[in-house]
Fold each of these.
Amino acid sequence: MRNPDSLRDQKSGDTPQGLALAMTAYVLWGFLPLYMKALAHVPAAEVVAHRIIWSVPVAAIVLIVMRRTDALRAALRNPRMLVMGCVTAALISINWGIYVWAISSGHTLDAALGYYINPLFSIFLGAVILGERPSRAQSFAIALAAAAVVVLIVESGTLPWPALGLMFSWGFYALAKKSLPIGPNQGFLLEVLILLLPALGYVVYLLGTGQNHFLAGGAQADTWLLIGCGLVTAVPLLFYANGAKLLRLSTIGLLQYVAPTMIFLIAVFVFDEPFDRARMIAFPMIWAALLIYSLALLRQMRSAPSR
């Protein structure tokens, strides 16, 4: 269920505050690989556990300051809401795990590819599961993106599973999130609260078996970087959640390419990942598909009757 206020804001036009908040979120997401690369020596599961643990106080403080804890308390008492929250929590934790592993293992280009394809996969899910009818241009864009993945498989001889894993986990997360009838800030805190006990249990296990990087002797930098995972996880999400309410859907649709473009540039020019022939063919196909999708989206928004 969407907030009626957010729909009114999106139909009335963009606001400078919304643009600033959303751009801040996407730029922070774009720089996130640099932070995660500093933790490349830490197993992805441990990084994800700390992303969960340290996101809880950040998200809780925001809700308390905004005085929006009532909906969260109601959700925690609602069994159906908790089940739905468990589904979205599981999907977002899988997405985080794949992303952290991709950055640390030299697959940052695959991460960029996965997030480029996300909006097209969401259209596909809407058509298959929700019965939505994509336009001809959108259908062609989906087909072009699928062809690009086939090119990658044929040319490289391997399945780009990090990209596909990110695409599937985020696509189904966004789909499930539509069924979670609480605000985005409350929903995020609900998800990390659901994941908190498993994450704490895993960190305690690592501490007990001596496999920990958190609080490890002589590794203070690791400890602070793991604590900082809460900020780099929660802050962009909260910026985005509040900025999206003040922007049109078409603007959000175009801004979502900022982060994967930054990730792509960092992968090629900072991490020096190989941009081989398969990617030289596939990425332009993806960019063409996104251009077609974006133009179709803008046409739809312009032709939609105002209310």
Note: The chain is about 80% helix and 0% strand.
Amino acid sequence: MLKVKDLCFAYGNIPILRALNFFVKEGIITSILGSNGAGKSTTLLTISGLNRANSGTIEFFNERIEHLAPHEIAFRGLIHVPEGRELFPSLTLLENLEMGCAISPIARKAKAESFEHVFKLFPVLKEKKKQLAGSLSGGEQQMLAIGRGLMSCPKLLLLDEPSLGLAPLVVKEVFRMVTEINSHGVTILLVEQNALRSLSISEQVFVLENGSIAFEGSGKDLLQDQRVKKAYLGL
């Protein structure tokens, strides 16, 4: 579904991604783990076109996309829910969701169905649909950000730190929602600091160190890996 090959990106003279290679299988949850500064968020930004790769290739359903603008990538069904949510705080919850439909004719045509799907996943959003996005709690804002992504009818959903800064009970709910979204057929590429929960829900995991893949495996196998236990689980 997604193939990243020899991807390099630098901020000025500082290399961040160093010949990065990995792939995402259709229909599953894939996670990228790594310490702060390893290049996880930069990877997602580069895949979605918000960063321009210095070299290497990105293929989405066998089409090279590394040269495309972000809106062209999103039009193809590769949707990025960024770290920090990036909502429109002065717009209502409903208006924020509607922004997700603007990306393609397919999303606009499916608008009513998408609203029904999002409100079924996140009932609290339906209750507060006329509130300003800036007035919502952190957990509600994260639900809204994910919901807006779903309104775009994604084939692949990139989630960057969806549990960041949330209370433990809300974190648990966020990961439950991620697995439920995947169960409805949406492929997910997840970047998370919460390694234990990420490993628990991911069929495929890549561990990023200094801008390249250090090792990989299934979430189940890496939960038993001594390197992962020591470096990311504190065991």
Note: Residues 102 and 166 are 29 Å apart (CA to CA).
Amino acid sequence: MALSNLVKTIQNIMRKDTGVDGDAQRISQLTWMLFLKIYDDKEKEYELLDSAYKSPIPEKLRWRNWAVEDTGITGDELVEFINEKLFPGLKNMSWQRGDDPRAFIVKEIFQDSYNYMKSGTLMRQVINVIDNEIDFNNSTQTHIFNDIYEKILKDLQSAGNAGEYYTPRAVTQFIVEMVNPQLGDKILDPACGTGGFLIDSLEHVRSKQVQTPEEEKLLQNSIYGTEKKPLPHMLVMTNLILHGIEAPINVQRGNSLANSVRDITQKDRVDVVVTNPPFGGIEQEMIKKGFPTQYQTSETADLFLILIIELLKNGGKAGIVLPDGSLTGDGVKARIREKLLTSCNLHTIVRLPNSVFAPYATVATNLLFFTKGELTKEVWYYEHTLPEGQKSYSKTKTIKVEEFEPIKKWWNNRAESEISWKVSFETLKGSNFDLDIKNPNRKEEIIEHSSVELILKLKDSFAESQRLLKEIENEL
């Protein structure tokens, strides 16, 4: 069955179930089912490689013993099994540090998973489609989850809540390639979402430097991440397992900002940070108090910038996505930028078009690249432009990997042009460390917006006004 038909078939079955309400629940339901199928297929591989392999999942709860069509249960019996045995059994798996970390991963994923489907008959139909149509150990089908994964993310975009944790693949690949993590580097995404940066980092190092089982083990133990919300956390864990990390125990669920930066020690620091932190959010007072007084702010992205600086080792490198709002502004914002420029070498800012994250956000964004422990002498800017003839990005016309090729060619042979320029540290210091530098080499042009773009801009403007009012209200 073709991928588009497979996903559509599953969604159509779920829509008939009265217990599943909306895209988010359908995606969550599909994800835990896919996880158990993937895990079972991976266990078949482990069993072939190790005759002594023992599954951490209790025997009766393993996918192969209740889900496969030949022996699978259905109807009320299936619903009762899922609700009364499967979920309680997986959520309450005993795990102590030092035990098989695979058990911890299963337990962690099911802590915040739920069965929304009420019809055991419909659930059986979904299970049969997943079990019969996909074999994750089949070399010709191993790409299928990546395709399903992309489809899930597009559905999340349609649901209107993916902007918090989804970054276009072209952007994650470019950032990782330019930061160029090495084997042995401790690589972190403190707001990892569905795991785009971690997967690309894993593949980047693996393809270039890993040649032995020992090097593969070192790589797997070098991938770190944190995600606040349960659904993207489940997706990143599933995708990492499919990409060869048997137990991604270093990817945790939680809020990276909740830990005081004052408590960060050398053992917590990392060699590489690649991330797209949430922006536009307002953090609570107790989160702000975990930061030094001069850097306390409610703006999520600004707090993440301070956190990232503190988490990097000297010589550590970062590639991050930040909105225009973090590049300008007085007070705390200016002090945070001063900290960045004086404790790190902010060598490159790539300015992206407003619509890169369309349709769920049209805020202007930037890619910042810096190295900790070196003073910034000058910042190079590169203005990424839309493909010729295209007015904006959209859900159907997304940013493509090949669009970054001109920037890659420019990267090691930098020269000023109509789309690239540099600004000295002294100039930035004189402007209160304002980094929102417009392109001085581009001729002014009249920008025409479609009615849809104007409506989106108005919505963003209203949302920003509401956020500022809320922040003022909280301060008062």
Note: DSSP finds 17 helices and nine strands in the chain.
